[in-house]
Amino acid sequence: MSNQPLKGKIALVAGATRGAGRQIAVQLGAAGATVYATGRSTREHRSEMNRPETIEETAELVTAAGGEGIAVAVDHLVPEQVKDLVDRIDTEQGRLDVLVNDVWGGDPLATWHKPVWEQPLDAGFRLLRLAIDTHIITSHFAMPLLIRKPGGLVIEVGDGTTDYNDKNYRLSVFYDLAKTSVNRLAFAWSKDLPEHGATAVALTPGWLRSEMMLEHYGVTEDNWLDGTAKEPHFAISETPAYVGRAVAALAADPDRARWNGTSVSSGELAQVYGFTDLDGSRPDAWRYLVEVQDAGLPADVTGYR
């Protein structure tokens, strides 16, 4: 198989500014794809997240990895902007093979460990709009282009598998609803897409070493293990490239339809497709979370990465 199995394929990663979205775009690029990387943070303007990462940087990383990165500033809550984006992809490429709904930006809006009557409604509803409305709006406009040719793939990126989220409260009513809803969207798409030869999958990374998470623990990617002094279970964490490689593996799989309607993790797919994280390991964070962390056992990643 070519080391660029996605050469000639067109992908849209909605929410590609940082974290999982950035590396999903990069790993699709490494597999040869042309990737439209969208978000609200550009070199001229920061979103409400007020972070330094930009979509232009993401596009440059995609190109450096071997693909073609195209940065487009889009607020995915604004239907007109999303329609213009898809019209542009249609004009420039005439096709869309992979749609990744990764828009989030809700972390600063979450209030943890509080009952609903102690939660700020404005922030909570904004979180839901960012997590759910953006994905629906993007799918509404992008799917007609995606299904024009058979073989399309839609990936809904969330936090937690359906199995895990169904059994565990995610510490905030708004966060809980957002993350269960994203997985449910993939399930809904899986009912509409197969007749058009397309597939929908819900995908979650494990404990993600995003830019924000590294800052939270006061570490960099080079010394990330020092973060275990603050939280021992951080040892199971993974780079954003891991979930990026999961997306690339799904997109390159001619039998990807077998995953239609499922909810899977990067760790689960690594066991099937054989890819690794950047350090050569295969962390299985959600199994670890259930069997070790949630079980109250001491941190020990033996057998989990």
Descriptive overview:
The chain has about 300 residues and is an alpha/beta fold. It has one domain: NAD(P)-binding Rossmann-like Domain (Rossmann fold, 3-Layer(aba) Sandwich). About 40% of the residues lie in helices and about 10% in strands. A seven-stranded parallel beta sheet has the order 3-2-1-4-5-6-7, sandwiched between helices. Helix 2 (about 55-65) links the parallel strand 2 and strand 3. Helix 1 packs parallel to helix 2 (about 55-65), helix 1 (about 20-30) crosses helix 8 and helix 3 runs parallel beside helix 4 (about 120-145). The chain starts with 9 loop residues before the first strand and ends in a 12-residue tail after the last helix.
Keywords:
305 residues, alpha/beta, Rossmann fold, 7-stranded parallel β-sheet, 10 helices
Outline the fold blueprint.
Elements: E1 10-14, H1 19-30, E2 34-39, H2 55-65, E3 68-73, H3 79-93, E4 98-101, H4 121-146, E5 153-157, H5 162-167, H6 173-192, E6 199-204, H7 211-216, H8 240-252, E7 263-265, H9 266-273, H10 285-293
Parallel strand pairs: 1-2, 1-4, 2-3, 4-5, 5-6, 6-7
